[in-house]
Amino acid sequence: MAEKPVLTLYNTLTRSKEPFAPIDPDNVRMYVCGPTVYDFAHIGNARPVIVFDVLFRLLRHVYGEDHVTYARNITDVDDKINARALRDFGKEIEDGRLSLNEAIRRVTEKTANQFHADIAALGAMQPTHEPRATEFVQPRGDGKVDMITLIERLIERGHAYQAGGEVLFDTQSMADYGQLSKRNLDEQQAGARVAVDAHKRNPGDFVLWKLSSPEEPGWESPWGRGRPGWHIECSAMSAAYLGETFDIHGGGLDLIFPHHENEIAQSRCAHGTPVMSNVWMHNGFLQVEGRKMSKSEGNFFTISELLHEEKFGGRKWPGEVLRLAMLMTHYREPIDFSVKRLEEAERLLAKWPAGGNPAEGRVDESVRAPLLDDLNTVAAVQALHALAQCANADPLMLPVFAASAELLGVLPKKAEVSKALEDSIETLIQLRLEMLKAKNFAEADKIRDDLAEKGIQLKDGKDPGTGERVTTWEVRR
Ligand code: AMP
Ligand code: ZN
C-alpha cells in the first residue's frame, strides 16, 4: 500500500502543531459539536460546519472514503428550545391543542430541517452519524451508551454528587481538571462570585442532571424526573458512535471552556481513560466590526438571510460564495465578515471552469500540500486559482482542477441556462458582432463584459469553412 501523506494539525490540548496519527487508520474518528436547534443558524455557526467539512473531505482523501467516521450531534434538548416552544405555540398549549412536548418537537424538527437545507447550500457533506440528544438521555437497549448511565457511573466512581435538586460533577475529584483550557481550580475559585450556587461543593462544579418542574420537559431517572445538563450529551453521543477514546474533537473557540473542558472531565472520569480525544481543534470567530457574531449580541445574519433574502449588502449570495469566502481565511484566525470579502470570493469563482469531472483527475499536490499543513485553506485556494487558470487554457487540466476543487468542496457546477436566457445571449452576440463590424469597440466590449459578469463567457473564433468571425459562448459557473 502506498505511504500515506503526513497530516499536521494544531492541537488545542498541547497548543502546538503535531503530526496526526489516528488510533486506527482503518477507522479515523471525529466528533464535532453541532447546533442547538431553536432558531435559524447564523453565518458564525456555518464556520465550524465548513471548516470540519473540509477536514472530513481531507481525511477521506488520505485514509479512504470508508475509513473515516464523522459524528456531529443535534442538540434538541435545551431551555432555550423550551422557551421558544412556549413563545411560538403558547396559545395552542394553553388551549390544550398541543402538549409542550409536541410543541418542542415542532420547533426542533423545523429548525433541524432548516439547518440541513442551509448547510447543503454551503456544500457540506452529511456526517456519517447525526445523533439527537433526546435519543440518548435514557438507556437505549442497543449497546450504545446514554447520558443517565454515564451519570450513574460518575456517581459510583465518586466524581458526582446530588445536591439542591441537581446532580453535579465534582471538579475537585479530578486531579488534572482544566488541562484543555489551562485553567486551574484555584483560579476558578478566585474568579467565582461568592454566595452563588451554595449547594455546590466547588464553584466550578457543573450540572449533569437537573430536576424538572411538572410543566418542564423531563425524563424519568434514578434522581427523579428531570433533564440533562448540556455537556453530558456530547460525552454520551461521542462514546456511542466513536468509542471511549477517539481521534479528533472539534468546535468553535467559545466551546473550549466550559463545554469541552467538561466533556473531557465527564468522559475520562466515567470511562477511567487518560484521554477523551487525542486532538482538539477549534475554529476562530466570525466577527462583525471586530465583535463575535452571536445571537445574544444581536449582530447576526442567518445563513438563510444570506442565501435567500436581500439583506446582506442588499442582495442574495450563493452558498458557494459564502463557503469560499470562509475558506479564504485560515480556520484559526478571526474573520471580519463583509460584503467586500464575499465579492472577492465571487470574483474568483466566476473565473473557475465548470464541467470538469473530479473522478477523472487527481488532486494536485499544490492544493493538497497546504491542506495537509493544518488545513491551510488560504494557500490551497490560491493554488486552486492557479490551477483554474491552467484548466482554462488547457482543457486536459480540467479534471485535475475538478478533483482539487472537490477536495475543498468548491467545485463549480455547470449552471442550467433557460431557453429565454439562451435566446437573449444569442441576440447580444449578434449585436456585438454588428458593433465590431462598425468598429464600435467600446460597446462591443461592454456587451462581452456584462455577459462575463453573469458567468457567460464569449469565445471568438473563425468559422473554418467560411473564414467568417463566429462567437460561441459557455457558462463559466
Ligand atoms: P452554538 O449553537 O452557539 O452552540 O454554536 C454552534 C457552533 O458554532 C459551535 O461550534 C460554536 O463554537 C460555533 N460558533 C458560534 N458562533 C460563532 C462565530 N461567531 N464564529 C465562529 N463559530 C461560531
Ligand atoms: Zn459538544
Automatic annotation (TrEMBL):
<feature type="domain" description="Cysteinyl-tRNA ligase anticodon binding">
    <location>
        <begin position="420"/>
        <end position="463"/>
    </location>
</feature>
<keyword id="KW-0067">ATP-binding</keyword>
<feature type="binding site">
    <location>
        <position position="33"/>
    </location>
    <ligand>
        <name>Zn(2+)</name>
    </ligand>
</feature>
<dbReference type="Pfam" id="PF23493">
    <property type="entry name" value="CysS_C"/>
</dbReference>
<dbReference type="InterPro" id="IPR056411">
    <property type="entry name" value="CysS_C"/>
</dbReference>
<keyword id="KW-0436">Ligase</keyword>
<feature type="domain" description="tRNA synthetases class I catalytic">
    <location>
        <begin position="20"/>
        <end position="346"/>
    </location>
</feature>
<keyword id="KW-0862">Zinc</keyword>
<feature type="region of interest" description="Disordered">
    <location>
        <begin position="458"/>
        <end position="477"/>
    </location>
</feature>
<keyword id="KW-0648">Protein biosynthesis</keyword>
<feature type="short sequence motif" description="'KMSKS' region">
    <location>
        <begin position="292"/>
        <end position="296"/>
    </location>
</feature>
<keyword id="KW-0030">Aminoacyl-tRNA synthetase</keyword>
<feature type="short sequence motif" description="'HIGH' region">
    <location>
        <begin position="35"/>
        <end position="45"/>
    </location>
</feature>
<feature type="binding site">
    <location>
        <position position="259"/>
    </location>
    <ligand>
        <name>Zn(2+)</name>
    </ligand>
</feature>
<dbReference type="GO" id="GO:0016874">
    <property type="term" value="F:ligase activity"/>
</dbReference>
<dbReference type="InterPro" id="IPR024909">
    <property type="entry name" value="Cys-tRNA/MSH_ligase"/>
</dbReference>
<dbReference type="InterPro" id="IPR014729">
    <property type="entry name" value="Rossmann-like_a/b/a_fold"/>
</dbReference>
<dbReference type="InterPro" id="IPR009080">
    <property type="entry name" value="tRNAsynth_Ia_anticodon-bd"/>
</dbReference>
<comment type="similarity">
    <text>Belongs to the class-I aminoacyl-tRNA synthetase family.</text>
</comment>
<protein>
    <recommendedName>
        <fullName>Cysteine--tRNA ligase</fullName>
        <ecNumber>6.1.1.16</ecNumber>
    </recommendedName>
</protein>
<feature type="binding site">
    <location>
        <position position="263"/>
    </location>
    <ligand>
        <name>Zn(2+)</name>
    </ligand>
</feature>
<comment type="subunit">
    <text>Monomer.</text>
</comment>
<keyword id="KW-0479">Metal-binding</keyword>
<feature type="binding site">
    <location>
        <position position="295"/>
    </location>
    <ligand>
        <name>ATP</name>
    </ligand>
</feature>
<dbReference type="Pfam" id="PF01406">
    <property type="entry name" value="tRNA-synt_1e"/>
</dbReference>
<keyword id="KW-0963">Cytoplasm</keyword>
<feature type="binding site">
    <location>
        <position position="234"/>
    </location>
    <ligand>
        <name>Zn(2+)</name>
    </ligand>
</feature>
<dbReference type="InterPro" id="IPR015803">
    <property type="entry name" value="Cys-tRNA-ligase"/>
</dbReference>
<dbReference type="InterPro" id="IPR032678">
    <property type="entry name" value="tRNA-synt_1_cat_dom"/>
</dbReference>
<keyword id="KW-0547">Nucleotide-binding</keyword>
